[in-house]
């Protein structure tokens, strides 16, 4: 039985070296899956399917048509193997232990430091669903159900909240006050402004609400 002792995290890969190795189309599919992270990718490919044209001349991708060697992992943060279970992954796992490199082996939990959830994105919102490796198919079904519940106004709201976050931190001194503010903002008419694309109106309404909270905070401190 598969264990469920996985802690869900999001890895920051931007600028870090990620090595991907394999011999079939799954190698390119996984590269496509990770491209948005803006990591520095090096591919060691043993198959006959050439790199897809859309990936050629990409400044963050380097492709070598040969087998992976131990010293290829020097300075690497994450190794992704698409070989599946077998001797390749056993060998790679030993190399990554020696170099303190994280490893993800597709469909081979025994030789992986992490598992990938089913991922859905709308704007800045990311929905991930994991079944701890028990049923990736069901995880995808659940992901689709949840991400489809996120509407365009919520996508716009999250983007707006990201833009005003630093202003809120400067204006309100404690976590509790900020949490109360965000709760009030979430239930306010900000959504109505964003639903019509009136970002300027949303900004003015935000300033009005924030000033009210800041004034109350100043009164409480007297």
Task: Describe the 3D structure.
The chain is α/β, with parallel strands linked by helices and 222 residues long. It has 3 domains: 17-115, 3-Layer(aba) Sandwich (Rossmann fold), CATH 3.40.50.720; 117-150; 152-221. The protein is 43% helix and 15% strand. It has helices spanning 25-34, 87-99, 136-147, 152-171, 175-186, 190-195, 199-221; strands at residues 17-22, 40-45, 61-64, 78-81, 102-105, 118-122, 125-129. The strands form 2 sheets. It has a 5-stranded parallel sheet with strand order 3-2-1-4-5, sandwiched between helices. A two-stranded antiparallel sheet has the order 6-7. The longest helix has 23 residues, at 199-221. It is elongated and about 70 Å long. The mean pLDDT is 91.
Could you give a short description of this structure?
The chain is α/β, with parallel strands linked by helices. It is 43% helix and 15% strand.
């Amino acid at each position: 039985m598969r264990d469920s002792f996985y802690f869900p995290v999001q890895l920051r890969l931007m600028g870090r070296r990620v090595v991907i190795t394999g011999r079939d189309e799954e190698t390119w599919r996984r590269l496509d899956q990770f491209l948005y992270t803006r990591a520095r990718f090096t591919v060691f490919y043993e198959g006959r399917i050439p790199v897809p044209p859309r990936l050629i001349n990409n400044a963050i991708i380097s492709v070598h048509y040969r087998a992976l060697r131990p010293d290829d992992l020097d300075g690497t943060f994450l190794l992704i193997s698409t070989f599946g279970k077998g001797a390749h992954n056993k060998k790679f796992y030993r190399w990554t232990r020696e170099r303190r490199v994280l490893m993800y082996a597709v469909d081979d939990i025994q030789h992986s430091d992490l598992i990938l959830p089913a991922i859905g994105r709308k704007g800045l919102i990311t929905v991930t669903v994991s079944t701890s490796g028990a049923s990736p198919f069901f995880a995808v079904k659940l992901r689709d159900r949840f991400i489809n519940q996120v509407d365009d106004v919520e996508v716009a709201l999250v983007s707006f909240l990201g833009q005003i976050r630093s202003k809120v931190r400067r204006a309100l001194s404690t976590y509790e006050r900020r949490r109360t503010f965000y709760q009030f903002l979430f239930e306010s008419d900000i959504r109505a402004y964003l639903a019509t694309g009136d970002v300027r109106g949303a900004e003015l309404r935000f300033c009005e609400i924030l000033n009210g909270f800041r004034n109350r905070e100043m009164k409480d401190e007297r």
